Amino acid sequence: MYTILTYHTIGDHKDILPAGINTPIEVFRSHMDYLSEHHYRVAPLEEIVNGVIHSQKVNSKTLAITFDDGYEDHFLYAYPVLEKYSFPATIFLTVNRINGYWESEKALGGKIKGLSRDQILKMQNAGLIQFGSHGYSHNNLLAANEEEQSIEIRGSKLYLEDLLSEDVPFISYPFGACDDGVKNIVKEAGYQAGFTIWNRKPDIYSIPRIPLHTNDGSRRFRFKISPFYYPAKSFFRFV
Ligand SMILES: [Zn+2]
Q: pTM for the whole thing?
């Protein structure tokens, strides 16, 4: 099983956002400190994808880091920590939130800033951060018709490739939602891989990731990155 971590906002949103999508800065920093202190190897996402494609075993202390949505705080707070350790990461961007805002009624002022084009390009140029698609407008792909799915999947790829002047081989599904129809469009659009959150029948277009939350202190983090997390999760789903 492959260990791919997924974060959303990194900030002081503890009391104003649902716990599921925010990781306080000090908690994120403690996770990265832990990985460094315990000699984990943080690999670029394509290395993990190649492992999946070729059914190669990946060392249990090798993992990848991803962020969904593309918040300004990824640049302001997460990036400096990643830079400190030279940890590569992938940020999945929702196109229409670039230079824009995420509405969140629980956030201060009702909004959270998205990454700007400049911030994205700055991180890309430094070479540590890779970008993927997280759809065009963050619509749930299972609630969209085929034409809308195509805009979300193909349109976002074209837009991001133009912005970044490079291939965008990976997509993560908003809400982790995909089915065979979605995966077919993703394949035909030329993506090499697609990412969900936990799912029972993983394949190259629905690679599971481990979501990190507000309350993932060091003990919980240790468990989530251990080889015991997936089997335990799978066991508890049947209880
Ligand atoms: Zn999302």
A: 0.94
